[in-house]
Amino acid sequence: MKKNNLPIIPLAFIAGAAVGNSIGSMLKHQKHGCNKNHCCHHHEPACCDKSSTITDEDPVYIRETQTSGHGL
Amino acid sequence: MYYSSGNYEAFAHPKKPANADKKSAYIVGSGLAGLAAAVFLIRDGQVPGNQIHILEELKLPGGSMDGILNEQRGYIIRGGREMEPHFETLWDLFRSIPTLENPDVSVLDEFYWLNKKDPSYSKTRAIENRGQKIATDGQLTLSRKAVEEIAKLVLTSEEKLGDIKINEVFGSEFFKSNFWLYWSTMFAFEPWASAIEMRRYLLRFVHHVGTLQNMSALKFTKYNQYESLVKPMVKYLEDKGVQFQYDTIVNNVIVNRTAGQKIATELDMTVAGEKETLSLTPDDFVFVTNGSITESTTYGDNNHPAPTEHAIGASWQLWEKLAEQDPSFGHPAKFYKNIPEANWVISATCTFTDNRIVPYIKKITGKDPHSGSIVTSGPVSIKDSNWLLGISISRQPHFKQQNPNELIVWLYGLFSDQPGNYIQKKITDCNGQELCEEFLYHIGVPEDQIADIAKDANSIPIHMPYITSYFMPRKTGDRPLVVPEGSQNLAFIGNFAETKKDTVFTTEYSVRTAMEAVYQLLDIDRGVPEVFASSYDIRTILSSIYYLNDKKSLEELPLNKVEQIGLEAFLKKIKGTYLEEIFRDEHLI
Ligand SMILES: Cc1cc2nc3c(=O)[nH]c(=O)nc-3n(C[C@H](O)[C@H](O)[C@H](O)COP(=O)(O)OP(=O)(O)OC[C@H]3O[C@@H](n4cnc5c(N)ncnc54)[C@H](O)[C@@H]3O)c2cc1C
Questions:
Q1: Which residues of B touch A67 (CB under 8 A)?
Q2: Which residues contact B454 (CB under 8 A, 6 or more apart)?
Q3: Residue B541 contacts A, CB cutoff 8 Å
Q4: Do the domain assignments include residue B534?
């Protein structure tokens, strides 16, 4: 019985590795509506991404991702 | 009602439901959802056609699925429909609708043969610098972090994503990827659109990740969808005796709520300007298309912009009246109020007779637009366009009456709050000629020819204030269930009715909700084809991992030391097993 389960464990691991993250950490850090001022932890890439910044040189459609749609 | 998959259920004919002959149906809206509901009532429910009434505020059927030669303005298409083989309920519908040309050939057959003969393939998915293919075209350019964010979104339940926007779950690396450029322009996702819908799309279309860059999975109708899909359906229904009643606004459906049951008892209408009421019995079914993304559309011409009005039309008003009566009928204002100013609202139909643009189109698409073959295979997106302009050119002729020298180009701009790159105006302020000039500039037409060609073309700007309403951020309960709990004779159909798993802004969604509504109210004993289950197919999931990482095997992924050790152990473990076979088949090892 235990043996039958074995392939599942590495499969789950590899799926996690392949998408570059462990499923555990993904679940742990699910967001519930992100307030950019309040959730700046290293595991919240979407909220607090400082490593890749968007500048005025980027095309409009990329700059617009920083707005709520009412203009830059 | 239950869901099914496979041929056993697909080819079976359901038995005639009890009392089918006694039933009547009042269908609000003659869009795809309303027409599909009528077909399913007749084909699967065996309700007599002359007991089915389609009530439509406009003077013609089809709703959003257009394509018209307007005598004053010229050819108009507000959009074109990208379709795919796994629109399960849609193909179940069109297998039964004969083409206008040949009663022995179904609309599905015509479509199938045509797309076999002339498959889509996009040579250039995105351009910049006035007609140059972007250097990384064909790659998804997702960073590891961006792929992680996709996985995280998919793994989050819908309940937890209530009212969350896409730009709250992704970071700048994701938005800078070609994946986002391709994805957002192909499906019209704005950054502030619903994360729930984005997640549904990721799951629903996971089998298309590998073809995002060339759109070879897309399929297209012969002509515009009014001529290729709506007209044959209307003929089928008219032949069966279905009553079409135009110039009829349904203002309210009165619903009696007692002992947990909801029964529609009255229709309040305005017929050709006159108020009318119609009493209903529980044997009278009411199907309401609630909300419409093409409601209050306005048109301009070469010299005038389309008026930017935001009238709250009959489809929203009726939904509001219903929502006032019962909380399970949803929250319409979520979808039509507070629409961001920067949103997509404008598309344009340009008709050219000047062949000077042909070489520029050929250079981008590799196709002669007059060859009769698909030209762009979905949109070509202009990365550096301030409006994020997209170009789509279907098979020509796109209208039966179209002359051989006419070329119809469809344009849309996903951002409306910025001046253009050539025309220093917001897209909403542009007349047809100006819109056309911006397009010509971006495809590389020399500046000294731009005004001349644009003047000669006939370009119709179209303003659709609610075009992105399907994608507004929402939470569970904002859309009514197809058949709300306790409802005996009232159903909601179309893309603002809630069905599990399927994706809005699709023709399939309209047909699915129609089928589910009819099958539930009539208790039809045959499975509704389930939403294509590719997200449960391990091959598809593995394949998507390969393509999301731009065709990298697991060993080529940027893994840290611990992950590398884990990977080695895993590969050793699966050696010689079925798992190794699947991973190998999907190029991951
Ligand atoms: C620009 C554009 C591009 C699109 N691209 C694609 C695509 O690529 N692929 C794809 O699959 N789908 C696409 N779609 C979506 C698809 O066309 C729609 O989802 C579908 O046609 C909607 O049909 P419907 O019947 O649900 O609603 P609608 O077409 O909106 O029909 C509703 C009808 O009901 C009538 N009505 C509403 N309220 C009342 C009332 N109270 N009284 C009387 N009449 C009323 C309206 O006048 C209208 O005719 C696109 C749509 C548009 C507009």
A1: 191-192, 342
A2: B433, B434, B436, B437, B440
A3: yes
A4: no
